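To fix ideas, we reproduce below a protein record of this kind.
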Amino acid sequence: MSTTLVNADLILALDIGTISTRAILFDVVEGRYRFLGAGTIPTTANAPIGDISEGVRLALDQLQDITGRSLIGPDGQLAIPALPDGTGVDACVATISVGPPIRVVAIGLLENISAESARNLATTTYAEVIETLSLNDKRKTAARLDTLLSLRPDLVVIAGGVEGGASESVIDLLEAVGLACYVLPKEQRPEVLYAGNSALVKTVKDHLGGLASLHIAPNVRPSLDIEQLTPSQPAFSQVFRQVRARQMRGVAEIDRWTGNRLTPSATAFGRTIRFISKEYAHTRKGVLGVDVGASATTIAAGLAGELIPSVYTQLGLGQNLPQMLNLCSLDDIQRWLTVEISNQELQDYIYNKAAFPNSLPAGPVELAIEQALACQAVTLAVRQAMQTYPAELPRTSPDFLPWFEPIIATGSVFTRAPSRAQALLMLLNALQPTGITTLALDRNNLAGVLGAAAAVAPLLTIQSLDSTNFLNLCTVISPVGHAPMGAPVLRIRLSFGENHEANLEVKNGSLEVIKLPAGQTGTLYLTPLHRFDVGLGGAGRGGSLKVIGGALGVVIDARGRPLRLSADPRRRREQHKKWLATLES
């Protein structure tokens, strides 16, 4: 991440989403950054306005009314740095997620090595890989040219050649890209990102520099067994900005306000998760971030300062929602529903939501559908993301989610749920964590803008990672093993405060809650039965650990891994209602 520190007290953060545009103001009060207020306006990217800057200005007007601060200078532009009379801000950062996925053609020498790395780089932001070209596919230059001309991609990502490796084969792949850029009108030429053998950079510039908007990034595959995506992401973000500036009015203006640091929301969210993972490096578990939005579902795994981001545009809850049905069936979504509706009604809702992504649930049925869709989106996203995680990550089983501490969720489907219990149940059902972890909620949806702010004011990010913005939902204990349903699998003793103690025997198949006041420290003593694994060193091993009470206390999820759901729809709906009632009690 490129970092340019500035002397900034008053910081404006803009978040331009598919549904809403937010303007958020932070200032230093008594030596500490404080959240002053936010203006929120429907995003104006689409007709009839078709200019994202208009939504930003309206959000700024609202923010000025709320805070009493004047932010716009005499020239009608955001005043950066602040003027002598106090008008304006010291720095501006911005994130953006609105817009269709950028269309990417991935090119690499070998389908399962460098071409795969090119595809993986594309999945770190809002992109859709529409074609892959490699030496394996045996296509000649003319056929590759036809493919590029017919698809008209926004971006071509070229990865190939390990450091000091092949050169002629890479140059052969470049020929079709150069020809396509030569044939196409200048305004229709794709951006080109080269992330291959660094020894060939000069050759690549000679072949493509005069024909395409060429960007150079570090090699994503420096050796056959090493993939490095993080160093290439700043260049990829720059390409993303340029593509969006061509597609949408107002993007270039907002980018100038930020000093050319306009950041894809998923990238900024990943920065926050990576930042937090450095603080939790001693746990060896890593930190997991889950962001469900209208444009995509993002799963970000932070591993001691390293980041594995996965962005799934086909799993957003907005215009691309019908694409979810390419990855699962309607019955897969039905299993999370607490209301009885037909598959036809469910399908109609999905297509209506795609046509009107700004619409809000009008009643309990629509809310139940929305939450079921979010649950399925996270289920599918995590299942795919797990394939990219290192095998050495601690876990109960290769088939289950690795151990993470904490797991942080953001997105309005969670933060605006009518109850915290609903948000927690969605996360438990979709993630199905094992062992012991903490689930936290980004209650103000600030994780993305905090990641963007880290580039100019890291202290703002550090000071915002507290309970004011990140709500501790609960500590979750998920024992895993085999025993008859209803058999006791775990004995728990919780001691806290002065002479307060709670004892609980957990049965297989149950969901239990131990009340521990929010912020209260306690000690859990765990005794597994039937050789169940609770994440304390192996099957049957117990022990003690310190816990801090969350909004919903301490939750023991002994419902089984994978989660056991009744095959009967009516009984399954009753299961969900019973579990929700347990969490809300």
The mean pLDDT is 93.
